[in-house]
Amino acid sequence: MDSKTFKAMVVQQTPDGAYTRRIAEKSLDDLPTGEVVVRVHYSSLNYKDGLSATGHRGVTKHYPHTPGVDAAGVVEESLSGAFQPGDEVIVTSYDLGMNTPGGFGQYIRVPAAWVVPLPENLSLKESMAYGTAGLTAGFCILRLQEHGVTPELGEILVTGATGGVGSFAVAMLAKISYQVVAVTGKMDEKQFLIDLGAKEAISRKEATDTSGKPLLKGRWAGVVDSVGGEILATAIRSTKLHGAVTCCGNVASPDLHINVYPFILRGISLVGIDSQSCPMTFRRQTWEKIASEWKLHNLNQQTSVCSLEELDSEIDRILAGKQKGRVIVDLGR
Ligand SMILES: NC(=O)c1ccc[n+]([C@@H]2O[C@H](COP(=O)([O-])OP(=O)(O)OC[C@H]3O[C@@H](n4cnc5c(N)ncnc54)[C@H](OP(=O)(O)O)[C@@H]3O)[C@@H](O)[C@H]2O)c1
Q1: Closest CA to 258 of 316, 313, 216
Q2: What is the pTM of this model?
Q3: Mind listing the domains of the chain with CATH numbers?
Q4: Which of 128, 141, 165, 315 to mutate for ligand 1's pocket (most ligand atoms within 8 Å of CB)?
């Protein structure tokens, strides 16, 4: 069994310090120890995978490496009583695709504690349309709800709206009756955002205030931010009394230039989101919501599918900020 070979993307550093990507033949013997072997049917592309695929040591310390923080497939071997061969499962984040060979390979071997049974009402392919991006959007929504942000309280701002996290936040919030204002750098994709359910799309420029005022007119009941920097700083200063701002990404900048006034004069909550080490109970709860109350019925609108061989150009696109929606990776069967 352990001599079985399979295809995987391998990122490698060359002697001149550059990073190359190729599709290579690997063996199950190359995978780390772990209780569960999964035959991966689908993966998906996240911004973090782009970083791992280009030698970003903050994500992946050791190369050669197979990226892919997301995987959905069928259990092939299990040393854990919790999973049996044939079970359909999802594995996202923890160390998958970071320093553990990830979903851009046809097999993974992982600890049982990382494995989530596929919820009823969700196919393996659908689960990877959401992937870490959709799950993270879901975490943001649950946290907003926990902070008392209900649809009646007013508009929710979603930044990076055509991206993975952003597009799923727009669509799922709209599905559960929130009014969503989408921030995008791609105003030519305004109709895409309206079709996802946004009531309005605004440009990054409109979402950025450089006046230096510590507080701006309160407009947002809640915010889902995946970009950071000045757009996040503006969003916090424009959030209404007792609103909540979820912060999950930094594609624009990791910096945040604000002072304490939004917190002490408006009681705003800034809520950090970390999908990587989020507790399993919260993870399962969010997948269940995704598969039921929040389930989107037109996923084709915001997803495309590529093969392992076609993934290379998609990695360049996501790093250039040009991604629209989500890319599912079909590993073949
Ligand atoms: N904390 C967590 O657990 C967690 C989980 C998942 C992702 N993340 C992070 O969330 C971020 C988004 O991930 P993703 O997978 O959704 O990436 P993505 O698909 O590339 O989406 C990012 C979107 O941000 C916008 N954007 C790009 N460059 C920008 C810039 N310079 N200024 C302002 N907006 C910009 C673009 O949308 P528009 O053109 O529409 O503006 C882009 O499509 C990343 O930083 C990622 O690492 C964090």
Answers
A1: 216
A2: 0.95
A3: 5-118+299-330 (3.90.180.10), 133-272 (3.40.50.720)
A4: 165
